[in-house]
């Protein structure tokens, strides 16, 4: 038993969920691993404080987002892990949508992408998203609006994904 | 659940399974190593400043197939003093995993490979700093100069691989300043080094004259592409602006109409640069821009690039009509020469895509 056992338990329980967040943010398996590793080094340094009534999950998520935005300040191409559809190949609709959505997400700004992931995948409230991003609720609203508008523009085929009432409200 | 969430969830489902032997132990080890190094540095602060010098070298190009298996670890010698010959590339070694499946990254190091295929360890080049940030090295366009950061000197060092001379920067830069995505560029003659402590932030960069120790501060939002012929090529990505700044400072940025990334160095005509327009849907369309006026000169549809790959960067001009472009696909990292009139690409070099931190001559090196 050492002082890091609590941290180890936390990582063991949440590592795959955190990896999924990192992957949605970066869109790249290697970058996601790098991102998660570098963030966990920070988390272990804060563990004594976090284990005394902090919220390790929220702290880690916030660190992931901040680190990702910092890394992505310079745009760089994203290599899709799925091959783009070739002419004549047969794909089911969901697979095609996934490819289109990945390509469209890669063209968002880091903050816009983070808002999409936190608000519409992690189901955080606007306040929680603002907390994670270290910005105001107003900024979250405007970033969500711009991100959704850009997704519509980049992938008009995916308009149906963005037509649920909750999404349309955020897009206003 | 919204349909957007379902679609995002499908993508998240493609996330890699956590395959690291023990993610938590890796983090704990990294944290402990950082603390250890910080403590050690507080006790021993050694700064070595040597005299400066420079060398004039001739230009050559990229070339060859460098995908062969690297030498066995136990047979790789240290980079010897004296003449070694120009480099083909540099890379980092990976972490080891012990019998208890605990990762050990303490032995990772920079290695360089010469054009003739010999691999050397470069233990004097810092690979990670006290904050666990990756520290880049840089190779000049012709492969003759290697720039790296020395922990012992707490400064940058330029090693001339053809003459064997080693010049340590008279300007000390504290190791802690090297942040995420720090960048390094070295000029062909090894006289100038541009260090950006943290790419894409407002933290200013530094152009260092290795001979005199004079420095020119570079506004943080600008990133260096190259230093050549007494001019540093700097880009601000958001707008997009290009600034051909004399190494003594001065000059005025030029704004392009559009958002461009992946800038090449200046073409031999001294005014053309190649870049990709970020708003374009097709990353295979290369745009030629006039660095003096900001005008778009031509859009070139590239042909002959692998369909399953992505372009990583543009780089050197091999002639007035061919610019190199670095691309990565599932099989390899490849350098292509692209004819800027016809768009036809021909492969000029190939590297294994399993080399962490792969650094090529003349390409900006980033500590990602």
Give the total of beta strands of chain B: 27
How large is the count of helical segments of chain A? 8
Largest Cβ-defined interface:
A-B, 61 and 47 residues
- End-to-end separation of chain B in angstroms reads 36 Å
Would you tell me the structural class of the helices and strands of chain A? Answer: mainly alpha
Cα shape of chain B? globular
Shape of chain A: globular
As a whole number of angstroms, the C-alpha radius of gyration of chain A is 17 Å
Number of separate strands of chain A = 0
For the biggest sheet of chain A, the summary is:
none
- Average pLDDT score of chain A: 80
Count of helices of chain B? 2
Low-confidence residue ranges of chain B: 35-61
Question: Order of strands side by side in the largest beta sheet of chain B?
Answer: 1-26-25-24-23
Major sheet attributes of chain B: 5 strands, mixed
Order of helices and strands of chain A: HHHHHHHH
Q: Quickly give the CATH architecture of the largest domain in chain A.
A: Orthogonal Bundle
Amino-to-carboxy terminus distance of chain A: 53 Å
List keywords for this structure.
heterodimer; A: 172 residues; mainly alpha; Rna Polymerase Sigma Factor, Chain: A; Arc Repressor Mutant, subunit A; 8 helices; B: 368 residues; mainly beta; Neuraminidase; five-stranded mixed sheet; five-stranded antiparallel sheet; 37% strand
How would you briefly describe this protein structure?
The complex is a heterodimer of chains A (172) and B (368). Chain A has helices at residues 5-26, 29-50, 56-71, 93-106, 110-120, 126-133, 137-154, 165-171. Chain A is mostly helical and 172 residues long.
How would the blueprint of this fold be written?
The complex is a heterodimer of chains A (172) and B (368).
Chain A: H1 5-26, H2 29-50, H3 56-71, H4 93-106, H5 110-120, H6 126-133, H7 137-154, H8 165-171
Helix pairs in contact in A: 1-2, 1-3, 2-3, 5-7, 6-7
Chain B: H1 3-12, H2 23-43, E1 64-66, E2 87-92, E3 96-97, E4 103-104, E5 110-114, E6 119-121, E7 138-139, E8 145-150, E9 155-160, E10 166-172, E11 183-186, E12 192-196, E13 205-209, E14 215-218, E15 222-228, E16 231-236, E17 241-246, E18 254-255, E19 260-261, E20 272-277, E21 285-290, E22 296-301, E23 310-319, E24 322-328, E25 332-339, E26 345-352, E27 365-366
Parallel strand pairs in B: 1-26
Antiparallel strand pairs in B: 2-5, 3-4, 5-6, 7-8, 8-9, 9-10, 11-12, 11-27, 12-13, 13-14, 15-16, 16-17, 17-18, 19-20, 20-21, 21-22, 23-24, 24-25, 25-26
